[in-house]
Amino acid sequence: MANYKTQQIRNIVLVGHGSSGKTTLTEAMLFDTGVLNRRGRVEDGTTVADWDEEAIRRGISVSSAVAPCEWQGHKVNLLDTPGFIDFVGEIKSAVTVADAALVLVDAVSGVEVGTELGWGCLDERNLPRAILINKMDRENARFQAVLQGVRDTFGGTIVAAQLPIGEGADFRGVADLISMQAYTGEAGTAGEIPVEMADAVSEARLQLVEAAAEGDDELIMKYLDGEELTPDEINRGLRTGIVKGNIIPVFCASAANNIGVRTLLGALVAFMPSPADVHDFTARRPDDEEVLLAADGAGPLAVLVFKTVADPYVGKISYYRVVSGVFHGDTRVYSLPSGSEERVSQIFMPRGKEQVQVAELVAGDIGGVAKLSNTGTADTLCDKANPLVLPRPVYPEPLFSVAINPKTKADSAKMGPTLTKVVEEDPTLRWRFEPGTNETILSGMGEVHIDLAVRRMESKFGVGLLTAIPKVPYRESITRSAADYYRHKKQTGGAGQFGEVHMEIKPLERGGGFEFDTSRVFGGAISNSFFPSIEKGIKSVLDTGPIAGYPVVDVRCEVYDGKMHPVDSKDIAFQIAGREVFKKTFLAASPVLLEPIMDVRITVPEEYLGDIMGDLNTRRGRVQGMEQGKGKGIITAQAPLAEMQRYSIDLRSMTQGRGIYTMTVSRYEPVPSHIAEQVIAQARRDRTEAEEE
Ligand SMILES: Nc1nc2c(ncn2[C@@H]2O[C@H](COP(=O)(O)OP(=O)(O)OP(=O)(O)O)[C@@H](O)[C@H]2O)c(=O)[nH]1
Ligand SMILES: [Mg+2]
Q1: CA of 647 to the centre of ligand 2 (A)
Q2: Whether residue 669 has pLDDT greater than 90
Q3: Fewer CB atoms near the end CB (10 Å): N or C, the chain?
Q4: Is the pLDDT reported for residue 99 higher than 70?
């Protein structure tokens, strides 16, 4: 591949609902530009972008893929993304390094959940974009209806730049409204627009020209004076409007039949911004000073890692965009925020799983490098003399969690390090140990996302894992004060033990944790030296509370009196007395079980609002607000985690996949008593079982 200047690069992210044809389009473009001499098929697992073994097995993209190609003297970096909602993290990462987007919409189904999801990610970065109505060859393909649908959903100046020639089985090419030429067949052979399309074409062209004129002061004057704009002027006006995000042009194609694809490539090159046109990144220096970085080879080096893939054989591969400066292979760079020096080996252009080695990459280009040791996704590589940190993309919080357990002893040892590796790959995946339930929890965006992570750990790293619904991390606390004493006395056998502790236990505000106080002890009733023993005794039971074995929170223990024995009082005696007086007073202080309450925000098409609210009721949910508009409803509610563990699965099935939600822990609240009884009984059964084993 030739060396391209920043101005000749186009970084285009493909987004759209699952199965809208992004991967198939990528394949067609690679074929048309001569990278491939044969088009692979998603169904056969032979495409460049869906090379991952899980993508092949499932027949859908599960991660983003970079696919560079050359067209008309330009380098087009295609960023294919998954449409399935669980992989939104992959979309976010790819959107971060793109300068423009192509949104694929199915010519039969029109706008779908995934279209809106992708569109939302583009809005977050204000990316310029075009729309492709794909699958024009399908029976019942309907360009105009789908065009109207996108306009209704997204608003703004959405204008057709082409009209399809034929629909369904008859689809054979596109009528270009700028050049007023027809381009038909796989080769995109230029010719006359069929006469029967004349009316439709002139009407659509009028809208396009008007939009183009509005983008440029000089053109609008000319247009309003009634003068014809030349094709060059229309091009100029359109490009300005598109780059600013004011105009969204609409194209049509059949990716599977490779019709309209060459014309589309030409349009992407002509109308979409180069890295130099848009996209200033605001970086920060370690002292927090902001620096605006343009895609300029003469600028300071700033490289943003947007994706990391852990491979058991090759090691780690990092994918990045050179935001500013020129990135050379075989150098040393500085990595932030870790603050470590990295040895950069050979750098390359990724093309699916293939690596095309290059000596350097200019500002705006996208590349890969293997074996960075201290650099993860969203980190910045720069010059040590000129440290810069690029902004990190904001990833959504995980929604779905499972408890994981190693299948065998051997798996057990490898589990932790492997989890750390896969989590490093994917910012929407997290793992932690939950001390309240003694479980290792893996969290992600949905069932499929988690399933994929678990399978990868098995196939790539040989770690077998079993998954289960996590236990709810309940907590224990009290609702009023209580005071009592405990005397520990053991005087049989050898040395005796004696300790007596009087203590009052008091509830603290939520989040108050644990407080221990001995200031009320008067006149040396207990020697100061035993205070730590008492505290230690109490702390020994805080992790496994007296009612059901869950961690104790928000209590204050005030020791106010006690007794000692001149010989038998010792550390262990006061530990035991402290522990026992704690249990006694805790149980007397109207103890309660607390459960996590979640803040939930659910977005669904209006027609599902009633069902969703009804369902929330059955989950002990409290609806707090509802907004409606544009055919959608947003419900804000609070509900206990215990009822929401499978919500990502249930919401999808209730809404045919059209509902989305976010969920975060709000606070802990007492469990209603009839439910608490069941939880406590279950906890006791579990404990007896564990003891019997
Ligand atoms: N008839 C028809 N089928 C198409 C066209 N483009 C893609 N397909 C088929 O639609 C299915 C999905 O295509 P993909 O390219 O995997 O779609 P995608 O957008 O990458 O899907 P995800 O990766 O799951 O988001 C495959 O069976 C393709 O063969 C098209 O233009 N016409
Ligand atoms: Mg795909």
Answers
A1: 26
A2: yes
A3: C
A4: yes
Task: Name the more confident of 572 and 278.
Answer: 572
pLDDT at 438: 87
Residue 422 Cα to ligand 2 middle (Å):
21
Two structure tokens written together for 113:
């959940």
Residue 40 CB–ligand 1 contact under 6 Å: no
Distance of alpha carbon 214 from alpha carbon 131, whole angstroms = 20
Q: Which ligand is nearest to the CA of 260?
A: 1
Taking only the tens place, the pLDDT of each residue in 154-203 is 999 999 999 999 999 999 999 999 899 999 999 999 999 999 999 999 99
Instruction: Tell me the Ramachandran region of residue 663: left when phi exceeds 0, alpha when psi lies from -120 to 50, beta otherwise.
Output: beta
Name the residue of 13, 23, 90, 103 whose CB sits within 8 Å of the most ligand 1 atoms, as the mutation to test its pocket: 23
When pLDDT is cut at 50, 70 and 90, the band that residue 507 belongs to is very high
Which amino acid is it at 563? K
Whether 60 lines ligand 1, by a CB cut-off of 6 Å, is yes
- How many angstroms separate the CA atoms of 227 and 221, rounded? 9
Which residues face 164 on adjacent strands? 174
In the reported structure, the alpha carbon of residue 25 is separated from the centroid of ligand 1 by a whole-number distance in angstroms of 8
Rounded to whole angstroms, what are the CA distances from 495 to 499, 532, 570, 580? 14, 22, 10, 21
SS3 sequence, 278-344? CCCEEEECCCCCEEEECCCCCCCCEEEEEEEEEECCCEEEEEEEEEECCEECCEEEEEECCCEEEEE
Pocket lining: 450 vs ligand 1, CB cutoff 6 Å: no
Q: What is the pTM of this model?
A: 0.87
Region of residue 17 (phi > 0: left; psi between -120 and 50: alpha; otherwise: beta): beta
Instruction: Kindly indicate the confidence band of residue 688, based on its pLDDT and cuts at 50, 70 and 90.
Output: confident
Closest CA to 593 of 645, 669, 666: 669
φ/ψ of residue 399, rounded to 5 = -115, -20
Average predicted confidence (pLDDT) for the chain: 93
Q: In this structure, are strands 100-106 and 247-252 parallel, antiparallel, or unpaired?
A: unpaired
Calculate mean pLDDT across residues 429-446: 91
Residue 39 Cβ inside 6 Å of ligand 1? The answer reads no
* Helix runs in 512-644, H state only: 531-542, 571-588, 609-618, 641-644
> In this structure, are strands 591-605 and 632-640 parallel, antiparallel, or unpaired?
antiparallel
> Nearest bound ligand to CA 257?
1
Whether the Cβ atoms of residue 536 and residue 543 lie closer than 8 Å to each other: no
Q: Which of 15, 17, 19 to probe ligand 1 with, by most ligand atoms within 8 A of CB? A: 19
- Our answer on whether the CB atom of 352 is closer than 6 Å to any ligand 1 atom is no
Ligand located closest to 448 CA: 1
What is the mean predicted confidence (pLDDT) over 639-661?
A: 91
**Ligand that comes closest to the CA of residue 17:** 1
Domains delineated in the chain? 7-195+245-271 (3.40.50.300), 281-382 (2.40.30.10), 400-471 (3.30.70.870), 476-589 (3.30.230.10), 596-675 (3.30.70.240)
Q: Going by DSSP bridges, is the β-strand pair 315-324/327-328 parallel, antiparallel, or unpaired?
A: unpaired
Q: Closest residue (by CA) to atom 30 of ligand 1?
A: 135
Give, in order, the Cα–Cα distances in Å from 449 to each of 63, 86, 642.
11, 6, 21
3-state SS assignment for residue 160? strand
Full DSSP string of 81-147: ---SGGGHHHHHHHHHH-SEEEEEEETTTBS-HHHHHHHHHHHHTT--EEEEEE-TTSTT--HHHHH
Q: Is the pLDDT of residue 279 over 70?
A: no
**Index of the ligand 1 atom closest to the CA of residue 253:** 31
Predicted confidence at residue 591, as pLDDT, reads 96
Each residue's pLDDT tens digit, 202-240 = 999 999 999 999 978 889 999 889 888 888 999 999 999
